[in-house]
Amino acid sequence: MNISMLKVIQPKLGAGQLINLAPILASQIHTSTPLCRVVSGKYRITKKRDRPLTYEMANPPHFIAHRKSWNSWNTSSLKDGLRRSETAVEDEFIRRFMTGTWHGLVCSEVIIKRQFNHIRVAAIIRRAVSPTKMYFLLGYTEELLSNWIQCPVTLELQTVNSFQDVVFKYI
User: Fold this and answer.
1) Residues of 128-155 as b/e, b for ≥16 C-beta within 10 angstroms?
2) 169 neighbors 53 (Cβ within 8 angstroms)
3) Cα 98 to chain center, whole Å?
4) Do residues 41 and 48 make contact, with C-beta atoms less than 8 angstroms apart?
5) Helix (H) or strand (E) holding 142
6) Sign of the alpha-carbon dihedral angle for 93, 121, 39, 45
7) What's the mean pLDDT when you consider all of the chain?
8) Is residue 15's pLDDT more than 60?
9) Is 10 helix (H, G, I), strand (E, B) or coil?
């Protein structure tokens, strides 16, 4: 409520009622300075500097498209794109299914690339299981995701010996 509105209301109100509007007018004045600091999406530095970060985690969000890439590659987020919400839900489902199926083996973020009707899922996996079990998990994951999402899914996995091989820096 500004001063011009008060002048319109004032003739209709009595003297006692005008005093009751004072807290409303005072509550709309904000005098604090804005905090122009970007903190979301950054990892907090620990006291011992022993938290390992991968390359993707080490770059803050404002470096997307400069030093790091998007975790989902699709065209549904463009103007007039189709299936925006369905694509986001499917991507989250794929990420959770991958981390659950490859429990304790995924060392990096799961990257999802969509091209036409084909989905490619890329990740870095630890070599902690036998090759036969890894081939089984590969076929199991591709087959189930293809049946659930109703389009071909291909896993593009790279393996490393340990999680220490993907550590970029410690904070």
Assistant:
1) eeeeeebeebbeebbeebeeeeeeebeb
2) yes
3) 16
4) no
5) helix 131-149
6) positive
7) 78
8) no
9) helix
